[in-house]
Structures are given as C-alpha cells and as structure tokens.
Specification:
Its EC number is 2.7.7.7. The protein is of the alpha/beta class. Strand 11 (725-726) and strand 12 form a beta hairpin. The chain contains 38 helices and twelve strands. Mean pLDDT is 88; it is low at 813-855. The strands form three sheets. The protein has a six-stranded mixed beta sheet with strand order 4-9-6-5-8-7. It has four domains: 2-103 and 142-167, TIM Barrel (Alpha-Beta Barrel); 177-337 and 405-489, no CATH class; 564-656, no CATH class; 681-859, no CATH class. The two termini are 51 Å apart. Helix 3 crosses helix 5, helix 23 (529-538) crosses helix 31 (659-678) and helix 29 (618-634) packs across helix 30 (639-653).
Length: 862
Amino acid sequence: MISKAYQRGYGAEGPVIDREWLTELKDGLILLSGGRMGDVGRSLLRGNSALVDECVAFYEEHFSDRYYLELIRTGRQDEETYLHAAVELAETRGLPVVATNDVRFINSEDFDAHEIRVAIHDGFTLDDPKRPRNYSPQQYMRSEDEMCELFSDIPEALENSVEIAKRCNVTVRLGEYFLPQFPTGDMTTEDFLVKKSKEGLEERLEFLFPDEAVRKEKRPPYDERLDIELQVINQMGFPGYFLIVMEFIQWSKDNGVPVGPGRGSGAGSLVAYALKITDLDPLEFDLLFERFLNPERVSMPDFDVDFCMEKRDQVIEHVADMYGRDAVSQIITFGTMAAKAVIRDVGRVLGHPYGFVDRISKLVPPDPGMTLAKAFEAEPQLPEIYEADEEVKALIDMARKLEGVTRNAGKHAGGVVIAPTKITDFAPLYCDEAGQHPVTQFDKNDVEYAGLVKFDFLGLRTLTIINWALEMINARREKNGEPPLDIAAIPLDDKKSFDMLQRSETTAVFQLESRGMKDLIKRLQPDCFEDMIALVALFRPGPLQSGMVDNFIDRKHGREEISYPDVQWQHESLKPVLEPTYGIILYQEQVMQIAQVLSGYTLGGADMLRRAMGKKKPEEMAKQRSVFEEGARKNGIDGELAIKIFDLVEKFAGYGFNKSHSAAYALVSYQTLWLKAHYPAEFMAAVMTADMDNTEKVVGLVDECWRMGLKILPPDINSGLYHFHVNDDGEIVYGIGAIKGVGEGPIEAIIEARNKDGYFRELFDLCARTDTKKLNRRVLEKLIMSGAFDRLGPHRAALDELAGRRAESRRSACQSGKRLGRRICLAYWRKSRNKLNNPMPAASRGRNRWCWTGNVKRWGFT
C-alpha cells in the first residue's frame, strides 16, 4: 500500500493511502487513528459528528478490535482538545485507545538540531516568521516512567500499547536469496550453465589459439579450472545469477550497446570469460576465481558491469521487458550531510552572513570522506577559531549533530534488483512527487538482507568515447574496403602504443592522463601489459606513500636486487607468484597465492586470511600467524622464515589491490592508448565530443591535437555536425554542439536543411531554409562569432549586423503574410529579401577580432 501511494503521486501532504485500499489487505493489520491529523481526529476538531460516525463505522466493520484511537500529548496546538474528544468518543463507541508520542528525534536536547534539519530541507531560516512550526520539544523517545506520568489519567492507553506489541508477530526471512527463473527449456539451470560455459570456452580457445595443435596443448588447465568453477557455482546455488548477467550482456553486444571488458573481482572467473561476461583471460594474467566467489564464505557473487553512458538505460529497459516491469527496480540511495556542506547549510539556516559561513567551510579540506573530526586534526585554524569565537563554536557544534544525517533520497548510480515476483513482495517502493522513477525504499545493503540480488549497471564515459571513435573509424574503413575494427581483438603488445606510453603522451587516455600518473609513467617506462596492470595498482596513496613504488621502479630497471619478497627473507617457491611485479607484493591475489604456496591454504582459506589482514584484528592475526607457520613447517619450510614472510605479507596486504579490477581497467586504458596511437584523429574527436560541454577541457584537448600534428577545422555551417567528427581528409571538424548557446534543436534544423537542399550559399540562404523559432538571432550571433560562417565570405562583424536585419525581416514578413497563406507569405518575404541585397554595411570593414588562431576559447563563448 505504501508503494501504491508513492506510485500514484504525492498529495498536498505527501503520499496518501486510500481508505478503500485497506479493505483489500486488512487481514493481519492493526490500525492507529493518527491522532489529531487522522481522518477521525480532523473531523472531531471540526465538530463534524456525521463524518466521525461514518469513519468509525467503516473501521469497526473492517477491523473490529484492531482499530485504536491514538492519543498524543506533545504540547502542540489542539492536542488536548482532540484528546478529550477522542476519549469521549472511545467511551461512547467502545473503542480502545492507545498512547503514542509521535517521536521525531531520540533525545530531548536534539530538538534544535531537528528544527534546523527541517529548515534546511524546507529552505527557511530559523527566525523566518513564515517558517512552519509543526513540531514540539516533547517529540523525543520518552522513557517508560515519563509515559506513565504523562498518561496517568488514562492508564488503559499505556496498557494497550503493550497489548499491540504482543499482537505483532512478523517473520522476516533473512539470509535467503531470490532470483527470477532463467529460461532454460527442459534443462536444469545447473546443466544449462555447464552447457553454455563449455560452448563459450571452446569459442574463446579457438580465438586465443587458432592452431589446433597448440590449442590441444594449452587447453587442459582451462578445462580443469572451468570444471572447478562450475562445481562451486552450482553447489553455492548461483547458476541463475551467471545466466542472467550473461543474457543482458549478450543482448547489449547484439544491440550496439558497448560493454566494458570487466570490472572488479568478477574478471577473475573463467566461467564469466567463457560466457562473455568479461573479456580478459584470467589464466593468462593469473587472476583468481576465489577472490570473486569464495566457496568457504557464502555470499552473493557481484558483477559490476560497465556500459556506455549513452545507452545504459536501454539495457535496464530490456531487463524490465524480459522479467516484468513490476519485478525490476533501481535502488534508492540516501544523500547525507557531509562536513563542508553541513557547515554551509547550518550557517544559512542560523542566518549568518555568507562570508562568515564561507570562511569556516573553506577550512574543511575537500578530500573524499572528510569529516569534521578529521578536519579539526588536519586544519589547525579550525580548533583555534572554534575556541576563540562563540558564534563559530555554536555553528560547528550544531553541524556536528547533523553531520551524516540523511538529507535527501536519490537513485543509486547503477544498482538494479530483479525479483522472481513483484518487487513489492520483497521491498516497498519510493517515487518522485509525480509518481515516476520508482526505486526500492531499501538501500543497496538492505535489499540484500531482504533477499533481493543487486546487479550493477554502471555507466563508463570511456566506453562511449571508444564507441564514437569506432563508428568514425569503421566508416572510413568501410569506404576503403576494409573490415570493421574489433577493439577486443587488438594485440596487447603493440610497439607504437608502448612507445607513446613511455613518452607519457597519455592525455585523454583512460586512467593515465593525470599529471601524477604521467610522472609515474616517465619513471617506470612500462613496456608490457603487465606493467600497465601494475600502473593502475601503484597509483594510489598507499603504495605512493609507502615507498613501494620506488622499490618497484628500481627493481624493474636493475637498480635494486629482485628478491621474493625480501633480500633477507625469501623463498624460491614464491618466484612464480611475485616475478610479474619484480618481487613486490602488489596485489591481493598475491597474498592469497603466497599463503597457498608456502602454507598449504586453500585459495578460499587464503581469501579469508587476506580479509583478516585487512581488518587488522590482533586476536585473529595471532591465530592466522600460528596456522601459517604450522602449514609452512608441514611443507618443509623453516618456521622462522615463514613468520618473517607472514609479517611482510601482513605489512603489504594493506596496500594490496585487486588485480582482477586492475587488469580489466588496464585493458580499457590500453584500448584508448592503442586508438590514440593508430587512429589519433578519430579518437581525439570522440574525446572532445565527450567533453564538449566543458570549454576549458576542449581548449586543452585542442592544444593536444595541435601537439600531435592533427589539423582541426573551425566550426563550419556547411561541414559541421553536432559532435566533433573527422572528414575524408583526416581533419577534425569542430562540433557545432560545443558552441555555448547553440543547442541540439538549432543544429538539427541546420543539418536537416543542409541534407535536403545542399550547402548554404550565404547567411540569407540559411535563414530562408530554417525555422526562425529554432534559429533565432541569438543563435545566429553565436554561430557567426564562432566562425561558423567564415567560409561564406564576409567579416563576422558585418554578418552579425546583417543577421539582425535579416532575422527581423523574415519575422516581419511572416507575420504580415500569416493570414494570406504560405505562398503569399513567401512571396512577400522574397520581396523583403531584395531590399537587403545591398552592399555590406560599414561594419564589414571592421577587423575580425575573433580569429581562429589563438582564440579557441571563443568557440565556447566563455
């Protein structure tokens, strides 16, 4: 019923449950009247006895002794008047009463914080006389003694609160997971997964090893790994999950929606690779399945899937169509008051001047996850002004109370749940005020407790860039009679790409374009894909601050001896595990493999060890250290050496990164690097299109294009499109959509007219062939001053003046001829046109101030 109320849309007081709905689901319900704000309460206060009788008769008929008149004493207007009337009604009609307190905050001293929170939400200042004052200081969680004292004159109201509690008995199922049934014909879900996985692996092996003899030699470890994974997946009861993910990813690929090669620990699954959920061979890069799905720790698998930003919603729509719209929903997320923002919000509500509040909030560092407590440690000025200024102290004290409190509800970036039946069988829904865009009222953690399985449909801008670049590349290849480029099939050892990488020419390359990353690349000089995987893992605060990065670089370049893992404490059995990272423990998977190799841990047990090291619980670590040493001794390894290596592993485990995620994102980085090296014009055009709403970024990318020796043509009314594109001569044509103030509507009108009747001859020709409602004077001015008409001849200043005259002429002509019909209107307009065929006005002699060279910012009109 709550879901239905939200889906219908909000009334004046928010979502409302209709009384008639109660009759449909009345079994098992206990109703409280809502006090003075319920239908009976309002009718009592208005003296409408007829409506009171009608309401009570309805509730008595359908709920009998399960309907209670609610009594509240919080000191608000009309409460006592209502209470006496309700008690009298209860005596007259034999209705039970119950005492409640309409609790809005926990402790009595939280009232001021509550009022400020409400004022933040409603947009009022605290001293605004128009601010609604709907709450009282008494709406806190009263103790039993307080409630007994408050209702000493109506003891049965308190007795009934206990009676209601006794009557409530709800069984909540936790720890179970519910998935929709995936269609498998007459096969079981388990057998169908095995069939699809083996078929998929065969296709993968044929691609990886085209030579049959080589394939026969290489396949045993793949078959063995596949069988192990399938056994675990089926035993844990997750075959349906893999099949559901497989289906919507395959649908995406079949319908032109770009999908990422993988994300997170899921890239370590060979079954996922065989089903084409991921595109990275886990055996080639030593990725572990147990890091994704641990048979010794039952938890749902969790594939995070990246889709093209533009087309992600198409995939969610497909899933809703396949499993039923009432069975699919996105997930709610709750925005909370963060440190810097809560200071600003509280300061505004308290009525402080903007400058005063701004000065304080700017002292809070902008780091992610920053709290007021951390800010006081990081910024010495904060505690100083806190102690010195009473107003600052009061503001920050209140901000501390509200920090972390929910401020608003929104939609999770990518979380989607798919239920076997209606979503409302498992979770209530929340909608916006119009009843649109439903999301679960449970957040991403609570939906899992309720038994729903979360699927992450994430949008990745880089996939959109790659897709746009491939569209331009394949259009050119088609003209040249070449087959389309398959970005998933490019070699991972391309010399041209790595030469560019070693020069740190990585502007616009995914994950590798920041200044800090470029400095790291110059020092590391990566020359293979494994080095790129390491780059993603190394460029994080932990490794950078620990000295690990310096050791890694020195070992790679022979300036430091490679040891496995330490010169004093190493073992030859660890060389295969640590050789790809020059003996440095860089990945979480290496922590697991060390435990397996030295001490005989299963990979599932090793994953538990890795988690324990991350949590740093002394008791658990002491236990694990003992198990590690004992296992090593059984393998003939000295106990002291084992403990020393354990301590080294524990130290580096905190810095360890998920190699599966690092490898998957390194692949996306490599794909963008390869495109920049081999198809620079198309790639840079796609990148500028993705950033065309940010003029400053476009300016920087234009500089990069010039550095690369690419030619960029200015905006042009006859060759430009909404996006940046590459012409037949390999030149980048500036996207008209990047000109601020020129939206999609005018550009669509221009392109439609151009496609219909050919190139525009001059400004008047453009005005004559397009709708002035879409292409008004303001838009024309933007186009002229950006240089979009430069190839048509006159100087921009002259065109700007002429644009105003001609736009006005056309508007006047059409208004005068409106009653005479289209033909007469056009004839009158042509007559007006002749009056404008004069020499260019004097303004045309003016210098073209906004020339192309050196004034790229003007294209965006910053």
